[in-house]
Structures are given as C-alpha cells and as structure tokens.
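The following record pairs a protein chain with its ligand, fe (iii) ion.
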Amino acid sequence: MTESLFGPAAPMELAPGAWLLPGLALEAEPALLAALQAVLAQAPWRQMQTPGGQTMQVAMSNCGPLGWVSSRAGYRYQALDPLSGQAWPPMPTVFQTLARHAAELAHYENFAPDACLINRYLPGTRLSLHQDRDERDFSQPIVSVSLGLPAVFLFGGLQRADKTLRLPLSHGDVLVWGGPARLRFHGVMPVAQGQHPRLGAQRINLTFRRAC
Ligand code: MD3
Ligand code: FE
C-alpha cells in the first residue's frame, strides 16, 4: 500500500466543502482500534428502532458527551446511553485529535465534536439515502472515518432526487463534509462479504459531529 510507504495521499475536494483524506486514519490505527474496543466494552453494539418501528440494519454505539439515538419517539442526541442509563463513554483523545486534524486539513478550524456515532455494517448491510439534520449548527462540519471492510458511499445533492455519485472507501479513509456539502443526501451501498485482517467481516464508521 502506498500509504504505508509514503504516508497518506493528498486531500481531494470531491465537491465544494467535501473532502476525501485517503488513508489519514492509518497512522493512528492501533490506537484507534484499542480505544474503540474500550468504548464498546462500556457501550456495546445495539440495533436501534426507527420512529416507524423498524429495526435498523446498522448496529450503533456512541462516545462523547452526546450520543445519537433513534427510537419510536424519534431521533435525538442525548447524554445517557439508553441501554445502561449511564453517560456514554468519554471520547478518546485519539478520536478527538484525528477528527480535529481532518477538519483542519479540509479548512475547518477548531472543530470540537461533542458526539461520535459508531456504526457497524456486517456484509449485506446498507444505509439508505438521508440527510444529517439533527444537529443544531449546520455551519459545523462532519468528519467520518472508515475502518474495516471497504464500502461504496453514495453521495447525492441537496434534494433527495438529485443524481448520486458512488465513492469507494477503504480502511483508514477519512471524509469531511462542511459548508455547502453539509446537507447533501448520502448513504452506503450494501457492504460486500470479505475479511479485514484486523476487523474481520465488518465495516465500522466513526462519525464525528458537533450536535449542540
Ligand atoms: C455527507 N453514516 O451515520 S458517514 C450517518 O458510513 C451516516 O456510516 C455513514 O451517514 C457511514 O448518518 C456515512 C459520512 C457522512 C456523514 C454526514 C454527511 C457523509 C455526509 C453529511 C453530508 C454529506
Ligand atoms: Fe448520515
């Protein structure tokens, strides 16, 4: 892999305000995976209910002061894990540092996420096209870190019906969405079968947001 020999590739602006930072998470991989394991020991995977009463395909957890949750009551950010009744695990420093560095490379200064949603995709799992609009301040970017099995990301426009681009994402890739890209529709195509050497048959995505 070129990343391991020469470091991550240069940032690429995919659309105004949307940046791909190929392999940016690779250098911190061992620390990220150790921190992730500690978070999941405290706040294990769970499949939440949609407001419509369906079980979400993607399993989720959170860390940081606020966690994104879905239930029959709707979508919201909350300080307590509904499974444990306790605060979500703190956001590991290695997570915060990577998220801020990524935002900075995409020209968003002083990004201080208060929420990290952790998504797990087993083979066959997809995420349908949606917008992220549960946050208070859409001037804050979103940083997304892909780990494990590759996936094809769907990247649309500001209207659901707009044409979508397909973007292949690999282990260690980081995306930053801000400014005019912040409210673009997006989703994830069904994840193909495979084995990642350290994560096995799953894709894990860390989504860093400023919720409040
Ligand atoms: C593009 N997760 O949790 S993160 C989500 O890979 C979510 O798990 C996906 O969409 C995943 O809501 C994608 C990348 C992402 C996040 C927010 C965006 C892309 C975005 C906002 C605007 C445009
Ligand atoms: Fe999203």
